[in-house]
Fold these 2 entries.
Entry 1:
Amino acid sequence: MNKVNFNAQAYEKFYDFKDVMVQAFGIGCSLCGTEEIEYVYQNHPPTIGNLIKNQAKNLTDQEVDQLIEKPLLNWQTFDETNANQMIPTFLCVNCFDIESDYDEK
Ligand SMILES: [Zn+2]
């Protein structure tokens, strides 16, 4: 990604219970690829780990698959839409700081 479309106000802290999305789906910072994701672009779908956590009971693997099928697609769509506009979906602290500095100049 060369010319990044960045607006610090448009990001919020990324919370995903037990880092499920990093562990299970291998997501990373959209710019440098590190797994240490700190920020996510606004209006994102619910994080997968939190979705699973919010279920009141223990789920079987099959139930988990069913539960996250749609949200995963939503995340893919979200990420693709952002990428098409050169918006990084996930950012680590470093990349966020670098882009913020760059933004102010
Ligand atoms: Zn990064």
Note: The chain has a mean pLDDT of 93.
Entry 2:
Amino acid sequence: MQIRDALIMGREFLNLHNIQSANLDAQVLLSKVTGMDRTGLLLQGDRALTAEQQQQYRSLLDRRAWGEPVAYLTGCKEFMGLDFIVTPAVLIPRPDTELMVETALEYLKKSDKGNPLAVDVGTGSGAIAASLAYLVPGLQVWAIDLSNEALEIAKQNARLHRVEDRIHFRQGNLLKPMPLEMKGRISVMTANLPYIPSGDIPGLMSDVKDFEPHLALDGGIDGLDLYRLLIPMAYSFLKPGGLLLMEIGPGQGEPASKILPPDLWQTEIKLDLAGRERLVVAEKNKNQFKQQKDCGFPERKMAATLVFKLNGI
Ligand SMILES: C[S@@+](CC[C@H](N)C(=O)[O-])C[C@H]1O[C@@H](n2cnc3c(N)ncnc32)[C@H](O)[C@@H]1O
């Protein structure tokens, strides 16, 4: 079979199975099998495939027809212009999440001239942590995940981009694995934690709900359970003026903002390229730091009382 015929056959087969990106997927899968890029495939359409290549291609097409995401089939996904290894142990990094990295980069460029410190909680494939370390020389990142399998992939990605010596990988729940001496010292914290409301999971596309890890998706009744727990912890680790970035879905901007007390945080909601709410940008207020440090966290109510007293209220 020639490349040209294989592409037509693959496209038609995937179309029959209602795969929306049938043409592109057929090209990407044949690239994987032949080692040729997509332009090469189009330019060398009359080249013949070996019997082994035909068999591998058919097997990948079958798996794609059953809904398996292309990134799991190729083992690779591009994010921030870098290639990342992905397996079913990790969520496939989404282009929408680049907004979070771009926001962190902008902030670090403006505000931190030394060797800044960052935390990426729920690191998954490590795409956010490794992109930040790759793009900000001298940045040190703590990359935390509950899943050991995900951390193994994140470590491979850090090695791939030669940033493993500046990323501290830790297994555990939210910020529990953070060294206490880092309190009040972190410049930026990125959190793409699960934020899909539990009730919405059954209605997700099959390639997400049947193939991606549920530990990476389910955010509780309104999707914000983990952010509710994270915010007070994040407050104590960020330095005054430090940034907490949390990815959200459409409709979660207002409820997420309500979890961030305005006396402690300045909050903004950013939209993605499709105009949907995508990112909570919360800056830790500078002028509250002294009182918070005295009180400690998570005793936020005590801290707020002290602020009122100091203000003579
Ligand atoms: C939505 S995925 C994001 C992965 C990656 N940061 C990205 O943007 O592609 C969420 C990740 O959070 C991890 N996670 C879920 N609950 C967690 C918790 N309580 N503490 C730390 N990590 C958690 C999951 O294992 C998963 O890797």
Note: The chain has a mean pLDDT of 91.
